[in-house]
């Protein structure tokens, strides 16, 4: 056995503390852009601080929390070497879940796990998260960058985040508010968002043999550019809508598809119908379906099919709601209605055929 003449060290094990410190310095300017008046202290503490006295203006404040990641979409970012958009996806996945109950996003923390710390790369990821937090109206109060050599390859990484919001108890949105005759308003997605990428990657790469650099005529850009399109962040749009029109519920269309996510906010005695003829899914959904010969039910339970958020509003609030969303640049339309359940077993169903 050869005798080791030098002592072991963290660096020899593959963890570079100095690179981690450099990453923190690079990300500070981006985190600063997300600060709200309630945030105390700066980056680098053991915990992020948020002044809860700001909640005194609430009669009965309810804290809403959520946690999520971005899934295998991160592998697209890794392959393309584009790291400053994936953070938008992370914020959307967390904060658009929080706003569903009517809560205002307050703050978020992130967790970035890498095989090897490349300071500029980590800073680019945080830049995207910070930009997403600005779009969601929340502060990025802290996070963690963990280096896991041996567990992850030098270029591998993953991201996760957790967020907190607040809503007044008597303004809590959800199934209890929904009534027969309510309208279901759909808000357009920016594309695939951040769900279903395991299916998408299998279909487009493994089965169809496509490449990220490939120009796709029907998409009007490369496949990689399409797949990295950031998830739309609806948080501030939804909050603005609640201030303008009466809203009974929101549904964030993520994993499980449109019908399953809408059903989560429909009370047991009611049923939501969504008419496919009211919109045409973007070209990327057709591409995935045709390339993998994926049946429509499988597509619909995996992908958002062009709808990223839904709002349930009283019929008399439809015009005001659509105007408010249009003023904010959100493409929205009436896609369905709320009916008595009758003998239906599902909470929500899709009807008709997509518009061509």
Automatic annotation (TrEMBL):
Domain PurM-like N-terminal span(s) in chain numbering: 59-167
Residues that span the membrane, as ranges: none
GO cellular component: cytosol
One GO biological process term: 'de novo' IMP biosynthetic process
Listed GO MF terms: ATP binding; phosphoribosylamine-glycine ligase activity; phosphoribosylformylglycinamidine cyclo-ligase activity
Enzyme class (EC, first level): ligase
Protein name as it appears in the record: Phosphoribosylformylglycinamidine cyclo-ligase
Source species: Streptomyces subrutilus
